[in-house]
What does this fold into?
Amino acid sequence: MSDFATQQHGRVWSGIWPILAFGATALAVGVALPKIIVSTLVLTLLMQAAANAILATSVGFLFRQNGLTSFGQAAWFGLSAYIIAVNSRFGFVGAEAGVVLAVLAPPLIAFAFGLIIVRLPHLAYSMLTLAIAQGFYEFFAKWREIANGDDGLEIKFPKKIFGVDTILFQQQRSMVVVVWSVLVLILLFYALMARSHFGLLTRAIRENEERARFVGYETLVPRALINALAALIASLAGVLFAFYNGFVTPSILHWSLSGEALIMAFIGGPRAICGPALGAAIFFVLKDMAGDYTEHWPGIVGAMLMTVTVLIPNGIAPSLAVALRRVTIGGAR
Amino acid sequence: MTGEILSARHMTRRYGGFIAVDDVLLEVTQGEIRGLIGPNGAGKTTLMDMICGRGGGHSKGEVTLRGRRIDGLDVRMRRKAGLGRSFQKTNIFPDLTILEQLMLAARATGTDDAAEVMEALQIAALAGWRAGDVSYGDQRRVDLALALTGRPPVVLLDEPAAGLSIGESLALSALLKDLARRWGVTVLIVEHDMDIIFSICDRITVMQLGKILTTGTSDEIRTNPDVVRAYLGSAAT
It folds into this structure.
């Protein structure tokens, strides 16, 4: 390795420590959450926000690394939850194997779809993701013998799963720690991946796919892999939802859930790693506050989305980062 | 200069009834800087696209690089075989820093010469800058750097001086000549700036209406009445 390469290697590793430190702190905060927050309502809201933050992060991840907007990310969220539910009904495989299948099947399917649809123009890709998600929605909504149609399916868990009492996944105080920790670990993985060669390569392909080929890279498989990784993130959110809720309906595959995740990602800033998670937090706070005053709260969320899109098109997180940097630099002077 | 390093034979590309490149034979000798000139629509960029595997139209022809047939390979594999390319319209990764994109290019070629290429193209001071934020002239250099990273034996440069000022063009041409000599890179360059072509090229091939009109040294081309009539006009003097 040349001196320059060694120097760059060192630079990359030195940048990783702050990320790991931030992640460790965030995990510690998560463990402390049930002790700090007394209100069950706040804990429930926080847990829902964290679960939705995972789904929104999957939308942002796809946008940042592939430059593509999914109108159907709920497909992978809902599919994973339904795999657990259908498996609990028919007992095809053991509960643990069902969970593993629920995590892995959506990304594998997304990879296969990705090999075809990521080649398409942006709008065609978006419309196809919508079509795929609505396809899954119709499948589970109509096929009563498998998924009990619109009435949904109750999930029966064994007492223990992976050696852990299942009841822990259904109590706010323990589940908030699990969901928060999964969110933090996903963001950590995302931040580290973004700094890796693969992260850089996929951003390069997003920027200029033809140039990436002329530089010597294959471009289809990395793009399909990003599609699959985004589906993996969404499927983790789906598994957590299935554990906590213990009940699934076709609404978890509906385009309106994909749309909400998209709104969260774009309010927070889809190109910032923590942007979609921040967007999810803002969305839930706004929904809760506005919901106290009017049942037409979606109008307020819509107005906010329009305001953010017009005034800060990159989203809130990047603008916050710029403001923080100014304050820090100003303070340092 | 030694033997032939790049040859393109029977190169033909049609777009419907229009023949953009018509049974062209182009042979480039190792170590030379070969200019490819001609009026707009002569087929220069199309020929370059065909050599490096860029799609479009109905194409046929044989491309051999260092004795190996590469016309069955895609763009990526031709790059790996040793064919670099820069573009008429700047073709870089605007959101990546200059360093990031050259590190990527170096890794694709299995080398770690990103720093050396940046130094050579005088963009090392801008390594940490987003490529989209630097001047147009520097973006042209980044485009060239992407083509030259890994020191491919042959580079195809499509109007590298397009849009540059006279001063920038002269500096770039001197740099190109120096790099080609120092690194032993064979260059095929399309350029409309005749000062650059006449000052750096060992031989020049002239195209007209999809065919090769002639090939020769700068002096031969300048004094060729067919070339003067078809393309050079007053630029020959």
Remarks:
- The interface with chain B takes residues 1-2, 4-5, 8, 197, 200-201, 203-204, 206-208, 210-218 of chain A (CB under 8 Å).
- The longest helix of chain A spans residues 3-36.
- Chain A has one domain: 20-332.
- DSSP finds 14 helices and four strands in chain A.
